[in-house]
Amino acid sequence: MSKGTYVLVTVGALLILVAAAPSARGLEVLIADDYFNGDLDHLVTALAGHNVTHLDNTDSGNNPVYTDDAGYLGDFDVVIFYASGENDVGREITAGEQTALEAYIQGGGSLIVCGYDILGSPDDALLAAVVRSSDYGDDARSYQWTAAGMDHFIVNGPFGDFRGQTINTDDDDCDNLLADISRGAIALGSLVGDPYHKIVFTDVSAPGGSVEGRPRPVRLNPRPPKPFPRSDRSRDVRKPERSDTQRHSPP
Description:
By secondary structure, the protein is of the alpha/beta class. It has a domain at 10-141 and 175-188 and 195-223: Rossmann fold (3-Layer(aba) Sandwich). The protein has helices spanning 42-46, 70-73, 95-106, 125-130; strands spanning 10-11, 14-15, 28-33, 51-56, 78-82, 110-115, 144-147, 156-157, 160-161, 166-168, 186-191, 197-203, 210-215, 247-248. A ten-stranded mixed beta sheet has the order 10-7-11-12-13-6-5-3-4-14, covered by helices on one side. Strands 1-2 form a two-stranded antiparallel sheet. Strands 8-9 form a two-stranded antiparallel ribbon. A hairpin with a 2-residue loop joins strand 1 and strand 2.
């Protein structure tokens, strides 16, 4: 993967990261979708030009299917993990998922974690650790948040300069996301009237990749995935166990 490649992704009606790649090859993108009800099928079209795999990530018992498999995750440049559980009301990730997601990040992957109640209801200390949040829970409440003033590609990039802007939302239900500065995390958005953050981003030391936590989708600039340390990025992806749930972008 070359530097400067981008992907842009929508969750629900809002843009969150990641489309438009200047590379000829395109990116290998996995959408690991806990709430696999068809709402995110349009992402395959939105990511035309990339190789997109959209999978149902929870079984009937609300257990993970793919996000606990480091080997499978490692076949993708970008993993978008919609981590809200089978019924879109939140779930705790497993210890196996934490291990696999962390291995993916440390191996050079670009992980985006988003969704509803990803750190609270129920409280999820394991996912908080993955996204480098020093807190977790579902107490945060605010209808507004302010983008950081720093010059960072997420708040000042191809889709506009949002630095210092206060942004209104239609729902005040937020998670207790708090950038863990001891682990290199930075806050790129802060709730108004509440001590918690809206966006937390961590650029992991080489050969690691990056991780971003965004409870609920947020409309801002895309993020460039890091190049993987491995020179051979040709895919030999194992066939998913539930192939009937798979969606691919058109050739």
